[in-house]
What does this fold into?
Amino acid sequence: ELDVDSLVQLSVVEAERSNDSVTGTIDVLDVRFGSLWTNIPLQLFKTLNIPVGERVEVDIQHDTRTVYKNFLVYAKSFADVNVGESLVYLNSLSNMAVAINQGSFAQAYNIGTGTNWKITMRKAPRLVYE
It folds into this structure.
């Protein structure tokens, strides 16, 4: 039996859409592989209209500091990108995740989990090279 006053209620932060992006938290570190699992559900991500194979702008913040910002391929599987390349993919919980093919995204960029780790995804701008 526990004293009710000894219980602590943890805050739940829901993923949300704002203008051209979706923002959530990094909830799980897949310790075996170093992938970062977000709380951004596939259905919310789909509202960005990013087809598989296109690029996603990923911005990760810890508290108020930007820790990572880059353009990643939205891949169906790890085989869709080269070894060592980062990707956005759908994990087994039907939420969006980021990883490095045959590497640890968490270790490479020193990223953790919790409600103070925010991740924002948006459709990458189309870049034209001469």
